[in-house]
Amino acid sequence: MADVSRYIKDLDYEHCKQLIHIVFGFVLLLFPFVSIYSLLAGSVFVLILLRYIPEESVLYCIVHDNPSYYPNQPKKPKIRSSYNLVVSITILLLIGAILDFTSFSYPLYVISGAFAISTFGVSTANYVNRKIAYKKYTLTLTSIIVLLGVGIITSFLSSSWIIFWQNTPITYGMVFFVSVIGAITGALFESIPSNIDTNFIVPLGCGMVMWMFAAFGYFVPPLQMSFAFAFSLLLGILAYKAGIADISALLSAALLGVLIIGFGDFFWFILLLMFFILGGIFTKYKYKYKESIGIAQSEGGIRSYENVFSNSTAALCLAIAYGIYPEYSSLIIFAYLGAVATATGDTLASEIGTTAKAKPRIITTLKPTNPGTDGAISVLGEIAAVLGSICIGLLAYLFGMVDNLLLSLVIGTAGGFIGTNIDSLIGATIQEKHFLSNSGVNFVATFAGALISGILYILMYKLF
């Protein structure tokens, strides 16, 4: 291979790459006028061409982005191959072509939207992000906002272009809905640290998530969707600025907010936010002491996407179910209450209980153990769990989510308290054997808390 180091001094490879991606994105204009099979064939042809670019050329260095092509840089950049971007788009087109022979379908407007987000949205954001050149890839708040804005607009326009020319019976409201979901999903995948090239995972992630919501056939009206997006993004930015969430958590909260406000209600999201606010506050409680004994949250208690989704997936599923199955609204609301109460109770039990002077005990044997041990409980922690659950039950009543204070307090507290102790039980057994991580335990426990509250509602609603 010829020495390409002389080009490094004169070219910003990353920015050249992003300009190539943006130009490549204009291929979307052809989508309505050719078959998906022709698009697939063209995509495969491009892959073949990219594989056979001469290795000594500057274009090869830009397209394939091998770190060995940066000999003068002490820190090699993360691989972000244009080839992988085309591979990902080819996979989406292949899925669409295969499903064309079945009773299922993968709408071309969804593939187009994912393509637009991955080229125009991601590439524009990367172009304005000055931290990417020859350094470890780092997203900034500015680049995230650019990605979201450009991604939503270009996804909506490209999808609308297809349904207009192909006369597809899809409303523009649905197009806007999946465009917002896709842009947030793409930004989230872009923000998550991974050894997998984001140029590969972002189009696939966007395409799959957008397809899933398009298949529901249910969408949130554009005005309501716009409000949910702006409100949840603003709160996520505030959490990031306050130092209680990183970029991935910011985007996770935005995605949750859009869906929960859209399918549920404004106060549904506020209730879930109370969990994050209380968790953030009590994570800082006696933080130096918890740090001194090795049980403090890492990075000063800043939450990441793992913490957000492990504690909120149950609530998200219930909010979506509420929008789709309004006939079961009361049951779903109380199950939602149990999920949020469990997340809150468990977090407060962990953050407050570990500061108790008395040694905690393993929930399965009640033998004394060290603070922070999986499955450890304490009197202080159990009290904190009850108080956190009561707080959620009270807020649900004050927010007008339920109209019976006693029922809200009883079911919310019971679901949260039992869910918290299920978390401890799983921690002492399954997690101890390394079958589940802490995030996995939280995920299971919140669903358990939702189930407990749902069952209690069925048993008790006739009494009240």
Automatic annotation (TrEMBL):
Transmembrane segments annotated in the record for this chain: 20-50, 83-102, 108-128, 140-164, 170-189, 201-219, 225-240, 375-399, 405-428, 440-460
Localization in the cell: Membrane
Main localization category: membrane
Keywords: Membrane, Transmembrane, Transmembrane helix
Matches recorded under Pfam families: DUF92 (PF01940)
Gene Ontology CC annotations of this record: membrane
Membrane topology classification: Multi-pass membrane protein
Similarity section: Belongs to the TMEM19 family.
PANTHER family (alphabetical): TRANSMEMBRANE PROTEIN 19
UniProt protein name: TIGR00297 family protein
Lineage: Archaea, Methanobacteriati, Methanobacteriota, Stenosarchaea group, Methanomicrobia
